[in-house]
Amino acid sequence: MTSLSFRARELSIDTKAMAAVEFAMVLPFMLLLYIGGVELSGGMAINVKVSEATHSVADMVSQNAQISAARMQAILGASAAIMAPYPITDSNNNSLITVTVSEVSTDSGGNATVQWSQSYDGTAFGTGRAVGQVISLPSSLTGTQNNNVSFVLGEASYAYTPNLGYAITGTVTLRDSYYLFPRCSTNNSTFPYYDVKFTPSTTCTCIQHLQQKTC
Q: Cys-Cys with 129: which of 11, 117, 171, 186 at CB 3.0–4.6 Å?
């Protein structure tokens, strides 16, 4: 009995044993924080790239009064390349990213609809949003001052799969969108107004959209 009591007292004052128990209790939380930090930083870095691709495709298209299919494909492809060094397809060559650019025009009542739309998914080019689709503009773009105008809408989405935390979160879709006025657009007296012509068959008269002055 004395020996057992002595061993119990010895265990209670053994700091090495206490440290081992405490470490075993804290270790799972430490690993969770570490893995979460790694995955969060990776996801945030990719999200920045998605925003850059969104802004770039809208910016490059908005600089044209008229744009051909070949040039449109070059712009979309370049925008998707912004994602480097992150992959845009998985091991099975399935697309991870989709970049879309559309022209959205408003009528005299401020109703916004898609005039044309093109997309690139990392492997192929195609049609993005449906022509005539009604778009809900962000509150910053609503109001009579933006009636009878056109916008270039850039959009991008990326299917992010965490390397370590997949079992917890699964695949997370990162997305962003960006509206820009055409910098130099066609001067139309009828709807759609001040737009960028896609695959035009005629030469367009160019004006600066915001000042409406001849270029």
A: 117
